[in-house]
Amino acid sequence: MDELLNHILSAIAGSATAPTVEKQEDDFAITYTITADKEIYPTLVGKKGATIKALTTLVRSLDKKTSDSSKRIFLTVKE
Fold it and tell me: Is the CB of residue 44 less than 8 Å from the CB of residue 52?
C-alpha cells in the first residue's frame, strides 16, 4: 500500500519534489500523513478536495480487497 501511495503522489507532483508520507498505525486505524510543498499542495488537494478524496477512496478500496484487516484508513495532508 505504501508503495502505491508513493507512486501516485510522485506522479501527481510531476517534476517538483515528491511529497513525503508517514504511516501511523493503532488498534483501529491507519493514518497516512502526507507532507507536500506549497506549490504541490493545491494540485494534491484539488478543487473542493476532489483529488485527495479520490485518492482516499482508492486506498481504502485496495486495502479492503488485499487485507483482512478491519482498520479504517485516513489520509491527512500538511503543507
Answer: yes
Number of helices (H), then strands (E), in the chain? 3, 3
Alpha-carbon distance of 11 to 15, in angstroms, equals: 9
Task: Give the Cα-Cα-Cα angle 72, 78, 79 (nearest 5 degrees).
Answer: 165
Residue written as grid cell 485516513: 74
Contact 21, 32 (CB under 8 A): yes
For 8-67, write each residue's pLDDT tens digit: 999 998 877 889 999 999 999 999 999 999 999 999 999 999 999 999 999 999 988 988
Entry pTM:
0.88
